[in-house]
């Protein structure tokens, strides 16, 4: 079996706490991300703000930082005039910023009490994110697995060598892309990844396949060290965890959206989410079998802090030493 950077956490606790949204949190702090590069735009313009958001998530209680490389692809950077070497450096910078935030957090002795040193997950967005047209919520790319492997290979090469602890392959809309990534991983011995799907309802991926079938198909890929769901409405998560729990022995992760709904016509979010409600939902997802929990779009440090507070009060650590 592949050694996982998550193993040490699971040896000591019943839950690993992920961070929350990056892009929408950057927007909340005044960043203009109306751009095909989305959060990766700030790798060029305001890297210090990315570093600060990572630090704030660690302070809130996150065990994992997910980097700003979701939409950072060679194709997207090329459209902005960056050559291959410069694009690769920006991808490495996304990991460096998270590492710097982690190191600054861990340098304070008070922050280590009851904590393990956080880890860095290099975000690998789907092919649809590069298209910047919402395809990660539809799938149906019209590409086979070999073509998807060719797309992902160069970026995985950079991110695997960047110093990240694992790869966060996220918002994957279909099994073909998940399998393409899983089949690529043996080209990078020692690399570990989670694969997280976007889903349209309580049973199906965004492309319409049964999530249960998708996670079952990944069971034999040892370098896939966790499977799950992200960027999905929270009302679907309980059912989706049930589906996964019945078809995989891998740790299950969930990091849904806040529960707000986006009005694309007016470019506004609607809803009244609360951190306490998010934490209460997290309690239910954990009870069903989720072992890694965080947030996606429109969640923030307050949501992660609420999850941390609930977990600290309700989930005793194991007998392993810290």
Automatic annotation (TrEMBL):
Keywords: Metal-binding, Methyltransferase, Transferase, Zinc. InterPro entries: BHMT-like (IPR017226), HCY_dom (IPR003726), HCY_dom_sf (IPR036589), Hcy_S-methyltransferase (IPR051486). Pfam families: S-methyl_trans. Its cofactor is Zn(2+). GO terms for molecular function: methyltransferase activity. It is an enzyme of class 2 (transferase). The keyword Iron does not apply. Residues 4-311 form the Hcy-binding domain. This is Homocysteine S-methyltransferase.
């Amino acid at each position: 079996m592949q050694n996982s950077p998550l193993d040490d956490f699971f040896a000591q606790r019943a839950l690993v706490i992920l961070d929350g949204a990056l892009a929408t949190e950057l927007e909340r702090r005044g960043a203009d991300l109306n751009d095909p590069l989305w959060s990766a735009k700030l790798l060029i313009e305001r890297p210090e703000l990315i570093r600060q958001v990572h630090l704030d998530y660690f302070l809130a209680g996150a065990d994992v930082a997910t980097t700003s490389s979701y939409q950072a692809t060679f194709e997207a950077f090329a459209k902005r005039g960056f050559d291959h070497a410069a694009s690769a450096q920006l991808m490495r910078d996304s990991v460096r910023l998270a590492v710097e935030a982690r190191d600054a957090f861990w340098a304070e002795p008070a922050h280590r009490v009851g904590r393990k040193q956080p880890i860095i997950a290099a975000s690998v967005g789907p092919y649809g994110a590069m298209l910047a047209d919402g395809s990660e919520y539809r799938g149906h790319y019209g590409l086979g697995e070999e073509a998807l492997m060719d797309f992902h290979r160069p970026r995985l090469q950079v991110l695997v060598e960047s110093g990240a602890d694992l790869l966060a392959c996220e918002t994957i809309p279909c099994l073909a892309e998940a399998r393409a990534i899983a089949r690529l991983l043996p080209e990078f011995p020692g690399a570990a990844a989670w694969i997280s799907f976007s889903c349209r309802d309580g049973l199906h991926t965004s492309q319409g396949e049964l999530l249960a079938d998708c996670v079952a198909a990944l069971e034999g890929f040892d370098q896939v060290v966790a499977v799950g769901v992200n960027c999905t409405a929270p009302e679907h998560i309980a059912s989706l965890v049930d589906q996964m729990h019945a078809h995989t022995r891998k740790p299950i992760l969930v990091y849904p959206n806040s529960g707000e709904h986006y009005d694309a016509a007016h470019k506004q979010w609607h809803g009244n989410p609360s951190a306490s409600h998010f934490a209460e939902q997290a309690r239910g997802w954990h009870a069903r079998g989720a072992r890694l929990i965080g947030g996606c779009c429109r969640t923030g440090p307050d949501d992660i802090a609420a999850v941390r507070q609930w977990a600290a009060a309700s989930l005793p650590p194991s007998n392993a030493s810290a």
